[in-house]
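Model it.
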Amino acid sequence: MKAYATKLIDLTETKAGDMARQWAADVRKNHRTPSYHGLPDDKLIDQAVSFYTNFRKMFFTESPYDTAKAFFTRYAEERYRQKVPLQEALYALILMRRHIWLYAEFQATFITAVEQQQSAESLNRTILMFDYATYQITEKYQELISRDIDRKLGAIKTLRMEAPAGGKQGFKAGLMGVFLLIACILTWYYHATQGTGVIFTHLFYIPIILASIWWRKKGIPVALFLGILILMSHAIFLAGASFSDDIVRAVMFVVISFVVAQLMEGLKKVEDLYKTLAT
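Modeled.
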């Protein structure tokens, strides 16, 4: 089989440019690879030439999985940087394999019946290599997606102050207690001594938003507490003033808390989904 495999490999190497141009023309018009339609010809051709010129090393190696991994991991990284979806990156690779055999048939590389039989054995080896490629490219895409999500959500994760064993829960509860104590003092000071409710209630959004980020829907009671606080304080210290402004503020506390909690719930589901896909 090796002589016939060598015949196929020699053809792939010597005609790499021709195969690459045919493949590039194919992916640029194929409806399954729309992300490739706008890529420059030189980048497409270089991508295919790189594969065809590395074909011999991957085909004849004694450790095909490890050898293929080095190439296809780099292939996955490059396609990911180009924002090519996983399914298109895999299908483009399938087309590369197809063009090897289409070109071999066009050149009548395997003519006799014996050669046709031996070529089937070469095909089995090629399919095995592409099976490895499918697994390795998918694995690398999952790794890159998870890394990007972790980086993009870095600020949110910092605000959430998550600890592997929940060690920061006590700290968050203590910090929230301090925020609520400060809110009580500010409410008393501005309502009882200054006779106004302007401006200071904007500071209440800090504990409201943090509570919703930390505990999601379980953080809504913080907004309820602060809303009740300003309404009770208003009734005691600002009895003669209009209630309408503070009622609006109290309602907005709860609305903002609910919206942030819903966003965090959705974000958590997305994170859990990607973690499941990455395992």
